[in-house]
Design brief:
This protein has three domains: about 5-85, SRP54, nucleotide-binding domain (Four Helix Bundle (Hemerythrin (Met), subunit A)), CATH 1.20.120.140; about 90-295, P-loop containing nucleotide triphosphate hydrolases (Rossmann fold, 3-Layer(aba) Sandwich), CATH 3.40.50; about 320-475, 434 Repressor (Amino-terminal Domain). The chain has helices spanning about 5-15, 25-40, 45-60, 60-65, 70-85, 115-130, 145-155, 170-185, 200-215, 230-240, 260-265, 290-295, 300-310, 315-325, 330-345, 345-355, 360-365, 370-380, 385-390, 395-405, 410-445, 460-470, and strands spanning about 100-105, 135, 160, 185-190, 215-225, 245-250, 270-275, 285, 475, 480. The protein is an alpha/beta fold.
Length: about 500
Amino acid sequence: MLENLTQKLGTVFDKIRGRGALSEKDVDAALNEVRKALLEADVALEAVKVFLESTRKRAVGTEVLRSVTPGQMVIKVVHDELVILLGDDEDASLNIDHSPPATILLAGLQGSGKTTTAGKLALWIKNKKNKKVLLASLDTYRPAAREQLRILGEQAGVSVLPEIDGETPPTIAKRARAAAKIQGTDIIILDTAGRQSIDTILMSELKEITSISNPSEILLVADAMTGQDAVVTAKAFKEAVNISGLILSRADGDARGGAAISMRHVTNCPIKFLGVGEKQEEIELFSADRFARRILGMGDVVGLVEKAAEVVEREDAEEMMKKLASGQFSITDLLKQLRQIKKMGGMGGLMGMIPGFGKLQKQMAAAQMDDKVITHQEAIILSMTAKERKNTNLLNASRRKRIASGSGTSVQAVNRLIKQYMEMAKVMKKMGRQGAGGLLKSLMGGGMKGEPSQGDVDLSSMADLMKSNKGMSPGKLPGLGNLGNLPPNFPFGKKK
């Protein structure tokens, strides 16, 4: 998500980054471009006005204009004000740590993704909070709604309240509470019915369910793709049932990103979660700071580490480290790496989370280096025999032709993959001989002037630097120079 907004803001900040001095006129010109970018991203006008007023007060102050790096300071001010607009991270936590059973009521319009979100939230609470969850469907109108929730509950490994024909939503809510007490359940998630539009019947039913279930959280599930319509919906639900938080579904498909900013401002309710994919585990706890950093192209290192920890098994990581230490790297190892990249959201998702790499996404798209390339390379490797994967010297012309045919690709694609593998294997071999520090030192030219050699980088200082964003533009990383230009073979072959 956020690609369009990130690109537009990146263009604005490129004009002021690195400038020796900024006048009020320069700041006003930059903020005017920021205003246009936010409006085009579907951010509500009211939210844009509040944001720009507070940002300008700080941006034209002595703190910025007399700064050694005024351009960087403006970006920092914009980041800080975005965090304020998006809300305090502490508000994002779920209010469920009290005497069980705690009830979470999910509300929203039909098609907003409530039932899917109920399954995702149940899995998240079970895994992250280690609590026993009961799912209950109160949607007696939509065909197969309860069956859908039952399947999602089975996939998540949580209990689902059995169906009884003829029950009304308030009656189901009562039965869910009684069943939770008997079963020793910690959390009840109630999936309510939606309508095509807001109406009195929907709201009166929600009010009745709320009074019966006494929920700890009333969370509005809204489709991030609906833009300004989501803001109107959020206002109506806030007025009717006093929602306590927001969950944005399909956030990964919203290139503009304005709905999140607008809904948070208009309702004054914290965003609790983002749905970032179709899989059941693809739900993220919202963080205002990390969200703002991604909008501004600063990356999300914490999110990247969390994602890696979820995807990469400890045993696999230890095995890979042993292989790297010995300089070994097989095509089977490459296959594992490709699959891990897919699990972590693909190349596009990873690039957006690494500081300074956001700009590369556009160049990757132009070079046709999207996630299809990973799928094609996976198919090529799977078309090889075990012996061929172990010994690439066996891959003569006829074998390569057979592999291309079996994977539905071309001989050229097979050749590219083998060449890339051989280059990677060479690097791994060098790492095995020199160690990771020695390799980094040789690759980066022994460090920058006035800094320690890159083999002895202080990672904690680097993390602090990235966190504060002081002394480092989002387009640079210490010791790596300007990353604005994409190497022709990065990371999956030459541009076609």
